[in-house]
């Protein structure tokens, strides 16, 4: 199976990397260069079935495009994007595994845990400086590149602050529905008394704090291992700070403690966290480093073992079962799809270049971080009964 972009480059499907409710991610090989990328395919009939679905896709594209054009090293880069009558396509850097996968392999040593934390703070700083909220930070959305450095990705729920008069995104309230993943919600998002659902960019700090709790404690299990907003809120009302005792480093524990302040007004900003003693105190640790060297990826990333390569190319189906939707939901979704598809047509969608069309700047398209040679691959899947299966599904 081959996908061809509006720029006339073609991508050969090698295997399925992952799938979700709104699409699939494939490992592909670019026809001319032989480089390998992740191709995210978002069916319009699914994406547009939710209110504002088209805008979410545009924001996801814009966020990765900004990361590419400003050379932000720790946010997922967009290499190409386009759309046709049925789907939206994002060609992205291919990363071997996620932080979720790595945590399931065992505890990360203290040096690399600190380096990963530093890189993630810089990733979030870059997004926030461009007035973009991620809104779904969790280990599954943090990817590890072939060089062992992190990339904050899956920006499908990201949202920008468009008002140019807003100077402080940490003080600017956003109103809207709950966005994110159960277990990683900030308390202000699910507080039953917060009926207007207003929040700020501090929600990203809280979610990242929960990721740091897992990173520093070496736990693959979420601190709030809930299955619903209500259950997570109930868990938050009990004393949870005792669980931070699983973090051995006192300064790391204090860092997480501050990031998990229930009151967002007391929660630090990303820039304040960069000055935390965990990163700057040379009296108690030899693991302090220069922030410029971190940003330039001058420190060795976490070790990545080799993988022999992807499975054989297969014809992958894109069928989705909507049978669980009741008649009213189907009617609402159908109306939303028609409205947003009409917008595509009006803006030159379909097989023509549209709002989704993007080609990375000249010179950056040969950046070696886009891809790497097959002999140095490692992926988050393995063989199981003759099929590629995510490592997490096999091991646990």
How do the strands and helices of this protein lay out in sequence?
Blueprint lengths: L1 E3 L5 E11 L2 E8 L5 E8 H4 L5 H17 L8 E6 L3 E7 L3 E2 H7 L4 H20 L2 E2 L8 E3 L5 E3 L6 E2 L13 E2 L11 H4 L7 E2 L2 H16 L11 H9 L12 H10 L10 H5 L2 H4 L10 H5 L31 H20 L11 E2 L21 E4 L2 E4 H5 L1
Antiparallel strand pairs: 1-2, 2-3, 3-4, 4-6, 5-6, 5-14, 7-9, 8-11, 9-10, 12-13, 15-16
CATH topology name of the largest domain: Transferase(Phosphotransferase), domain 1
Radius of gyration: 21 Å
Give helix and strand order, one letter per element, not per position: EEEEHHEEEHHEEEEEHEHHHHHHHEEEH
What is the tally of helical segments? 13
Order of strands side by side in the largest beta sheet?
1-2-3-4-6-5-14
Looking at this structure, what is the CATH superfamily of the largest domain? Transferase(Phosphotransferase) domain 1
What gap, in angstroms, lies between the N and C termini?
31 Å
The total domain count is 2
Based on Cα principal axes, name the global outline.
globular
Helix percentage: 25-40%
Which regions contain 5 or more consecutive residues with pLDDT less than 50?
312-325, 367-396
Structural class of the secondary structure composition? alpha+beta
Q: What is the number of beta strands?
A: 16
Give the DSSP E fraction (strand runs of 2 or more residues): 15-25%
Q: Describe the main β-sheet briefly.
A: 7 strands, antiparallel
Shape-level CATH architecture of the largest domain: Orthogonal Bundle
- Arithmetic mean pLDDT: 81
Classified by CATH, the class of the largest domain is Mainly Alpha
């Amino acid at each position: 199976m081959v996908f061809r972009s509006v720029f006339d480059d073609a991508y050969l499907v090698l295997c399925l990397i992952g799938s979700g409710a709104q699409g699939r991610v494939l490992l592909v090989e670019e026809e001319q260069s032989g480089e390998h990328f992740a191709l995210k395919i978002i069916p319009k009939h699914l994406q547009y079935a939710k209110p504002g679905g088209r805008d979410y896709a545009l924001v996801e594209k814009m966020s990765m495009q900004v990361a590419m054009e400003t050379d932000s090293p720790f946010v997922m880069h967009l290499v190409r994007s386009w759309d046709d009558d049925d789907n939206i396509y994002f060609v992205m850097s291919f990363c071997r595994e996620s932080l979720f996968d790595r945590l399931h392999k065992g505890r990360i040593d203290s040096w690399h845990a600190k380096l990963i934390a530093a890189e993630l703070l810089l990733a979030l700083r870059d997004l926030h400086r461009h007035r973009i909220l991620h809104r779904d930070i969790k280990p599954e959305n943090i990817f590890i590149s072939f060089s062992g450095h992190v990339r904050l990705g899956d920006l499908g729920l990201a949202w920008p602050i468009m008002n140019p008069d807003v100077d402080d995104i940490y003080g600017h309230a956003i109103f809207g529905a709950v966005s994110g993943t159960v277990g990683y919600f900030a308390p202000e998002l699910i507080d039953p008394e917060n009926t207007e659902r207003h929040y700020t960019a501090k929600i990203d700090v809280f979610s990242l704090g929960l990721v740091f709790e897992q990173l520093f404690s070496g736990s693959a299990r979420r601190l709030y291992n809930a299955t619903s907003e209500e259950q997570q809120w109930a868990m938050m009302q009990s004393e949870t700070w005792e669980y931070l005792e699983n973090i051995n480093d006192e300064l790391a524990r204090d860092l997480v403690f501050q990031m998990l302040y229930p009151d967002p007004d007391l929660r630090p900003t990303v820039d304040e966290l960069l000055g935390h003693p965990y990163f700057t105190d040379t009296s108690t640790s030899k693991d302090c480093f220069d922030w410029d060297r971190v940003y330039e990826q001058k420190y060795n990333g976490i070790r990545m073992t080799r993988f022999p390569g992807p499975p054989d190319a297969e014809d992958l189906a894109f069928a989705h079962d909507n049978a669980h939707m009741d008649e009213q939901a189907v009617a609402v979704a159908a109306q939303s799809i028609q409205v947003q598809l009409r917008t595509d047509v009006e803006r030159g969608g379909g097989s023509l270049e549209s709002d989704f069309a993007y080609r990375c700047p000249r010179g950056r398209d040969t950046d070696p971080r886009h891809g790497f040679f097959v002999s140095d691959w490692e992926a988050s899947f393995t063989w199981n009964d003759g099929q590629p299966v995510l490592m997490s599904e096999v091991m646990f």
